[in-house]
Amino acid sequence: MCAIESIGRHAEKRYLRRLEYARSDKSQDENVNHVELSFRCVVSLKDIELRLVAELMKNSRRSDRELAKALGVSQPTISRTIKKLEKEGLVKEYTVIPDFAKLGLGLLVLTFIKLKRNISPEDLGKAENLVRGNLEKTAFPQLVMAERGLGFGYDTVVVSLNKNYSDYVKLLDRIRSYPHIEAGETQSFIIDLTEESQYRPFTFQTLGKYLQTIQEQK
Questions:
Q1: In a domain? residue 198
Q2: Measuring CA to CA, which residue among 5, 101, 91, 83 is closest to residue 46?
Q3: Total domain count for the chain?
Q4: Angle between helices 205-217 and 47-58 (to 10 degrees)
Q5: Same domain for 126 and 167?
Q6: Which domain holds residue 65?
Q7: What is the pTM of this model?
Q8: Measured between alpha carbons, how far apart are the two ends of the chain, in Å?
Q9: Which of 29, 37, 67, 200 is 20 to 30 A distant from 148 in Cα terms?
Q10: pLDDT digits (tens, 9 = 90+) for 147-182
């Protein structure tokens, strides 16, 4: 059993309260049965590792030398720690966050999906394997995330970036074509990225700063 560190203890309590409520609410019974809920223990990180992840989230273009200066450690320490984080899967990829609207991706859409209640566990497993296979083959290149969960009577949320509403409708029709999905029960939350007024554009910089505050409070 892994140790719950930093954010883990409070997150675990909130998660367990949420799960207890879902199980006590009869309207959520089927959701609980269909959605595999598990609390993932937070990996215990050394101070330098957490601080380095935070710095990389704020700006991953910096050299090892620049990161070492920012954290007050040696360059070899940074290089060694980055390799360790990559090997352990704590750093999954290096990428950029572009201006999606300027690239022609004007809509960010959250699609909420409900699974059929009369589907057998065996058929559900086959359907999920089919979806995973299609995702691995980039059959849905617009999707940036697709995850199971619990809330508002839905089982799955899909996040996609689309050129326009017509492009999204084509994606939605493909999603609805899967036999384990209640085609008539999907809901969408559409964000127009071309709007000039935005509360906070997509970023990881603020999350990196948040991780730093967690470390400082330990």
A1: no
A2: 5
A3: 3
A4: 160
A5: yes
A6: 47-96+204-217
A7: 0.72
A8: 22
A9: 200
A10: 888 888 998 999 999 999 999 999 999 999 888 889
